[in-house]
Structures are given as C-alpha cells and as structure tokens.
Amino acid sequence: MGFLDKLFGKSTKKADEPVVKKDKLKIAIVQGSVRQGRNGEAVANWVYDFATKRNDDVDYEVVDLAKFDLPMLGEELTEANQVGSETAIKAWSEKIASFDGYIFVAPEYNHAIGGALKNALDFLNPEVNNKAAAFVGYGSLGGTRAHENLRLILGELQVADIRTAVTFSLISDFENMSEFKPADYHADNANVMLDQLISWTGAFKLLR
Asked: Three-state SS for 197?
C-alpha cells in the first residue's frame, strides 16, 4: 500500500467501473409572440441554430406559444370550449415542465411583454420553480424593457434569470422592420448568454 493510500485509504471505485453519464440538459426556446406577421419566428429559429451549432451536449427545442391556443386566465368558458381549453392548459403545463431551463424570445409591447406571454406564464408555477431563464428580445430598443418585465414575473415564479441578454433592433437588425438580418456582433452576447444559462441550468437541476 502506497503512502497516499495509507493516509487517505484506497478508493472504493474499481478501475473498470462504468462512469454514469448525466442526462442532457433540456432547454426550451419559447417563442413568446402570437401575432400574425410576427418577427419572432425568425428570431427563435436563429437562436436555435446558433445554440445547436455550439455542440454543448444540450437538447434545445423551439416551443411556439401560438400552437397552444390558451384561454385567458379566469375567463368564463362555454361548455363547448371547456374541454379544448383544459387540454391546451394541460399540454402547455406538461411541455414547459419537461425542460430544465428556458430562453424566452419576447418582443416589447408598450414597455412590457405581450399579453399572450403574460397570460401563459400565469398558468405556471411549480412547473418552472428552481430553474433558470435567459432572454432574447427585439423591438425599437431591442426588447430590453420586456426583459425587465420578465425578470419581475419570473422572480415570483422562482425562476433565476441570468444577466446577459441578446437584443435585436428593429431598425438595424431587420430590413424594412420585417426581414431578419442580425449583425455579427450579436454572436458574442449569445455565447455569453448560453454559457451562463447552461451553468445555472445545470446547477439548479442538482438543486431540484
């Protein structure tokens, strides 16, 4: 027995013992606008392509809020709409709960996020507790005020939001405010954002 073995004892792990591989992190890219003619689809796809090309061993998925057809929280529903609405709420809850972290792609409307995204978040709570989120915005000021609005909402939902965000300008990153042509410099922010999000998402997964 060597000196270190005498001092600390031998490792109980066998040399040929298989290493248990951790499950991949799952991160949703939530497309938070439901408006017709929205620019958010192009932005969400850009985020997905950028993130997957990094080969971080993370599973990314675009989750389009418009596909869930959620009712307004607390509205009175007709009997004909009751079943469909309950199905939509359950599908939204289960989909969001299946992820470890989130990237919210949110435009800015009147200094805040859009009503559809706020309504969708109001259906959630335990599904997102002790998870992490990042923000990608677009608008006249890059969606920054929507991000600040989201930080308040997610704080109440016990979601940790990272500092670095990606902000696309309707003036300089969209041709005629509609065709998405992001400037190259956004890649630096996107890399920092993803690095932070992956670190926090992994840490909170251990906490849960």
From this structure: helix
Whether the model pTM is above 0.90: no
Evaluate whether 176 touches 37 at the Cβ level (below 8 Å).
no
CA–CA separation, 9 vs 14, rounded Å? 14
Distance from C-alpha of 72 to C-alpha of 47, rounded to nearest angstrom: 28
Kindly give, in sequence order, each residue whose CB lies less than 8 Å from that of residue 39, ignoring residues fewer than 6 positions away: 33, 107, 138, 170, 174, 177, 178, 180
pLDDT digits (tens, 9 = 90+) for 98-131: 999 999 999 999 999 999 999 999 999 999 999 9
Q: Please tell me the predicted confidence (pLDDT) of residue 21.
A: 52
Locate tokens 């013992």: which residue?
A: 17
Q: Which residues are 61's β-sheet partners?
A: 28
Task: Give every CB contact of residue 60 below 8 A, 6+ residues apart in sequence.
Answer: 27, 28, 29, 48, 51, 52
Determine the Cα–Cα distance for residues 70 and 160; give it in Å rounded to an integer. Answer: 25
Instruction: Using alpha carbons, list the distances in angstroms from residue 110 to 14, 65, 141.
Output: 61, 20, 11
Measured distance CA(54)–CA(106) in Å, rounded: 22
How many CB atoms sit inside 10 A of residue 121's CB? 23
Cα 131 from Cα 127, distance rounded (Å): 9
